[in-house]
Amino acid sequence: MTQESRTVLRVHGAKAREFLQGLVTNDVERLDEGLVYAALLTPQGKYRADFFLVPDGEDVLIDVEVALTVSLMQALSMYKLRTPVEITETDLVVTRGTGTPPEGAFADPRDPRLGWRGYAGQPAGEADWDALRVAACVPRAGVELTPDTFILEAGFERLNGVDFKKGCYVGQEVTARMKHKTELRKGLARVAIDGHAPVGTTIVSNGKEAGTLFTQAGNEAIAYLRFDRAGEDMMAGDVHVSMVG
Length: 245
Hints:
Elements: E1 6-12, H1 16-21, E2 36-41, E3 47-56, E4 59-65, H2 69-80, E5 86-89, E6 95-97, E7 106-107, E8 116-118, H3 129-136, H4 172-181, E9 186-193, E10 202-205, E11 208-217, E12 220-226, E13 234-236, E14 239-243
Antiparallel strand pairs: 1-4, 1-5, 2-3, 3-4, 6-8, 7-8, 9-12, 9-14, 10-11, 10-13, 11-12, 13-14
């Protein structure tokens, strides 16, 4: 039962939305509807950080994993140049829960099963967040999401984390090419397991490497798979692995 450690940054200034719009994978104008899940990529289209953009008047808050805070602030500061915005760390605390969002909280845009997120001191709810992530096949920074990740392989389209009509952003060309010109041959998938293996255990099928096992909850897990090798006879160490659905 893992609760994320989060930092909330503030992007302050009349051009906060315009500044972020040219950088992140999703349409910042969706802030008028609630939380926006997005990522910052490298120019080569690989994962750098994922986060939630939160509307706060003229400002935009960024709800991000603690471990990514320093690198994200450095990247945003690098891209800021002469843009009249300020990026600061706040003392806001992120709370989460399932069910109907309390007043002032927002529905998690990735999947309804992940409930809501609050930033104004709403009481946190209890839940087995890893089990919910596995059930919805939602990746997490530092586990399924690494500097080698391409976000479409990580399911960002399904999780409402990328917009293909918004125009340019960092890494957009590679992401668009993966969307329109290739069929994904690798990616995250929910699998069934009959035991437990360390996160990062190699999955083998018919003597060939087929992927990697990640977050596990009960008899299911998130795995990164080569789809042409995935089957019913996969093993992760001593653990039998099979596709779900």
